[in-house]
Amino acid sequence: MTNSPLARRFVQVSFGPALASRVVPMVTAIYFAAASMIVVIPSGIQLFAWIMTILTGTPIFKTPLLWIIGFIVFFIIGGLSGIMFAAIPFDQQLTDTYFVVAHFHFIIFGAAVFPLLGGLYYWFPKVTGRMYSEPVGQASFWLTFVGSALTFFPMHIVGLLGMPRRVYTYQSGLGWDGYNMAETIGAYILAGGLMLLVANLVVSYFRGPKAPDDPFGGATLEWSIPSPPPHYNFAVIPRVTTPYPMWDEQDRIEDMRKLERGEMVLDGGHETPATSVLDANWDEVIDMPSDSPWPIVTALMMSGVFAMLLTGHLVAMCVFLGLMALAVAAWHGAEPEHEAAT
Amino acid sequence: MSGLNVERKRISMPAGWWGTLLFVATEATLFGTLFATYFYLRFNTPQWPPAGVPEPKVALPLILTGVLVATTIPVFFGARAALAGRARLAWLLFFVALVIQAGYFGVQVHEFLGDLDKFSPHDSAYASIYFTLLGAHHAHVVVGMAIEVWLLAKLLGGLTPYRLVGVRVAALYWYFVNAVAIGVVLTQVYPAL
User: Fold this and answer.
1) Which residues on chain B are in Cβ contact (under 8 Å) with A340?
2) 3-state SS of B26-56?
3) Peptide bond before A215: cis, by omega within 30 degrees of 0?
4) Cβ B2–A262 below 8 Å, yes or no?
5) B22 in A contact zone (CB under 8 Å)
6) Which residues pair with A275 in a beta bridge?
7) Cα-flanking dihedrals φ and ψ of residue A274, to 5°?
8) pLDDT at position B15, please?
9) C-alpha span between A339 and A269 (Å, rounded)
10) Which of A52, A205, B66, B154 is deepest in the core (most CB within 10 A)?
């Protein structure tokens, strides 16, 4: 965490249960305790949903799934240390110690960053058209996993031993030295894992073997098109009826028929379909705005107007206002020939 | 074939109308915060308006707002006429609305400048929020009139589907400005009630 006031405010708002109890009145502490308790229920449901999704599926134990499993492990650890804060005496004892730091790093890094990195690996072949190196990818996962566990887990213990957060040095002989040394070593391993990940992706981007359309046997429709996706990726808006559209052969055959009939090709301009909210049935066709530089020019000029207002340059503000009006006029001066009926 | 299929599916408001609705929602939030600021300051201030600042007029702002809100009628029927394809009638009704709104705006600017002579936004929290709230509303009236001028110029060339979107957008924007005007004027005259 940085020490800027803004970041600290953000942390206090979003991690209020863990961080704020020392300075707040009892009513607020009770509120935070109740919030910490209640949040367990949806988190638990999510967790079981993820685990059951993997168990009832056909897991492909490649790099992306490893990150997801790592995420689940860290989320359980971070979640269990989070629920402890619902006990107000415990919270007051441990607020502003390294226990809190351990808790939210398991959440922030383990539970938030791990799936992001897994997603990076998962869609890297689709986005770039190149395969990453699987052994190096797994190595980068294990280094990062072991590194983060070694970095963040001992923080629980030094927190319980009373080490406050936001200290850069301390007396020796308090019993914290060994744990902090382990954390330092873990941090280097963690950084090494992340650098290996970056190196893997950068090298693969230039030297990797060509990626197949569907390297993981994926269930969703991005895997039905070439890697990287061409322009005009779907010639016809696909029919989707289940969460696993790639495996619904009847729907894919129906798509081919639609293409032959020229149905739902939406070639009459810049069009996109809109669907009903609950059943995702095709509801209407929306005309999207066409490519134009004027919206961004207008936005920039408007930013200029407000910047000049803030700094008190009224003449310059009027200039920006005039330029903005000209940009709006240019934007709407030419009428598109093909436009939505009303 | 595909053209027919697609055409049949156009049942909702155009995207420009939805965009304007989101824009209006943002603007409504702005005015919501201004109202909240006004009453937050009011309930943290023992004397409102503070000593030396005259109480706001009551009758004139209420009448002016009534006049402005009344322009909802020509705007509404102007939009209906345009959607029915009657370009000349629509032009006329929007022109009537614009003339009334311009008159309203002229008197309001005169009042605003008169208030500025009596007290300055730098004087007190009351003066600051008073001028901010009224100024924000007047700015919205200016934008609404600019949209109408543009629309009137366009409608001279007849109706197209694109211009019908413009008609809907202008009408929606004015419904919003007129609704906000009621909140603004009630807040403005509130200390004198």
Assistant:
1) 10, 14-15, 161, 165
2) HHHHHHHHHHHHHHHHHHCCCCCCCCCCCCC
3) no
4) yes
5) no
6) A282
7) -115, 150
8) 77
9) 8
10) B154
Q: Give residue B78's identity as a one-letter amino acid code.
A: G
Q: In chain B, which residue's Cα lies nearest the Cα of A329?
A: B150
Contacts of residue A112, defined as CB under 8 A and 6 or more positions apart, other chains included, come to: none
A338 is written with which tokens?
């093909």
Q: What is the DSSP letter of A227?
A: S
Compute chain A's Rg from CA coordinates. Answer: 27
Q: Is A205 exposed, middle or buried (0-12, 13-18, 19+ CB in 10 A)?
A: middle
Q: Do A339 and B165 make contact, defined as CB atoms within 8 angstroms?
A: yes
Of A265, A289, A341, the CB nearest to B2: A265
User: Model confidence at A340, in pLDDT bands (50, 70, 90)?
Assistant: very low
B44 touches chain A (CB under 8 A): no
**CB-CB neighbors (< 8 A) of B161 in chain A:** 339-342
List phi, psi (to 5°) of B104. Answer: -55, -45
- Segments of chain B scoring below 70 in pLDDT: 1-12
Report all structural domains of chain B as residue ranges with CATH numbers, in order of start: 3-43+56-192 (1.20.120.80)
pLDDT at A243 over 70: yes
Task: Tell me what pLDDT residue A25 has.
Answer: 74
* Residue-level length of chain B: 193
Per-residue tokens: A257? 């028929």
The total number of residues written for chain A in this structure: 342
Helix (H, G, I), strand (E, B) or coil at A270: coil
Chain A residue with minimal CA distance to B168? Answer: A342
Tell me, what's the ipTM?
Answer: 0.76
- In the numeric block, which tokens belong to residue A80? 């269990």
Q: Please name the residue of chain B whose CA is at the shortest distance from the CA of residue A269.
A: B3
Cα–Cα distance measured from residue A153 to residue B53, given in angstroms and rounded to the nearest whole number:
63
Check CB contact under 8 Å for A285 and B9.
Answer: yes
CA distance B166 to chain A (A): 10
With an 8 Å Cβ cutoff, are B1 and A261 in contact?
yes
